[in-house]
Amino acid sequence: MMEKNRARDLAYQIRDSERRGAAKVEILQEGEEPEEMVKILGPRPVTLKEGSTQDDKEADEIHTRGAVLYQVSNATGEMKVTRVADGGTFRKEQLISDDCFILDTVGKLYVWKGKKANKEEREQSLATAEKFITLMKYSTKTQVQVMSEGNESPLFKQFFGNWV
């Protein structure tokens, strides 16, 4: 039941934040898939490999392995972008309310703005994320999702191992 609730919440979050409310979320019951969906995705396999907690951990590690967390701060008097951590699961405590952060997940960039971050840090964090797309030679279609502290998306939170 908890997995269904998380999946539903994630679908709504994607609809609201990434699709700006333009997508329609449908909750389906197993075995009641619409014919159109089956045509596109193909029939459901007769047998599915039984998953395990270890499989989940390995998938999470692979997914987060290339991610890098950067801090954008002018606390020293000059604007600095500092690499905080990379290659794995980050901790929520690494996000400091006084600053902004960029989470580079290779396929997508997240800009996190701390509640106490100043205007210059907020502006510079978005500008820096946009520069990353060019510097890292990412696709021009690379998404940049901006969020403020306390309004983090489930997709962002999954990179932080201790986020409840």
TrEMBL record:
GO molecular function, one term: phosphatidylinositol-4,5-bisphosphate binding
Keyword Repeat attached: yes
SUPFAM superfamilies (alphabetical): Actin depolymerizing proteins
Signal peptide (residue range): none
UniProt keyword list: Actin capping, Actin-binding, Repeat
Gene Ontology biological process terms, A to Z: actin filament severing; actin polymerization or depolymerization; barbed-end actin filament capping; cell projection assembly; central nervous system development
Domain Gelsolin-like: 90-156
Record keyword Repeat present: yes
A Gene Ontology cellular-component term: actin cytoskeleton
Domain of life: Eukaryota
InterPro entries assigned: ADF-H/Gelsolin-like_dom_sf, Gelsolin-like_dom, Villin/Gelsolin
Membership in a protein family: Belongs to the villin/gelsolin family.
Protein name according to UniProt: Gelsolin-like domain-containing protein
Species whose genome carries this gene: Aquarana catesbeiana
